[in-house]
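Data availability (excerpt). The following record was deposited with the supplementary files.
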Amino acid sequence: MTEVYLRRLSRWQAEQQRAAVADVHVTAYRGAAGAEYRDRQGFLDRFEQHVQRLGFDMMVADAGGLVGCAYGFRVERTGEWWSDFRGELPTDIEELTASGRTFLLAELMVLPAHRRHGVATLMGERLLARLETDLVVAAVDLERPDDGKDGARGGRPANAAQETVRSWGWSKLGLLAPHSPSAVREVWIRRPLR
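Predicted structure:
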């Protein structure tokens, strides 16, 4: 495999690289759960908003072209991000959000040819290493078990994002209401080591 180099992108650099990032996104999610919502223009619209968010930070993997990307931003202090959380949100999570100490890992994607080589782990570690937050959250899209597809975990195909955050030692907090009839999102959390 070609050597992969990691680099951090500023907000300006991220905006300049948006077409290449969209290419990675479309290829990385082809055929995955919720693919109908992961179209190129939809991603570009979300990315344009995400780049403007407070505390935006981004790491890319390059091997003669982008092969992966991880980025996120601070969760709004208002707690709006948690509005779709099913059940009661733990008080400490509410407090960390209100204090501005929560970071959302919004995207983590690696081209299929570069998966299972530690690229996602390296990008995640580097992205989160310099954060001055007390909580990192991620929402992972999962297919519903009654979708008719065969696979692991009670009828659901194995989900690379779920497997990745689990392998990183993150904890599952709960579920967010689905943003489409075919997708359920799990919320995973990590408290950074100091």
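Summary of structural features: The chain is about 30% helix and 30% strand.
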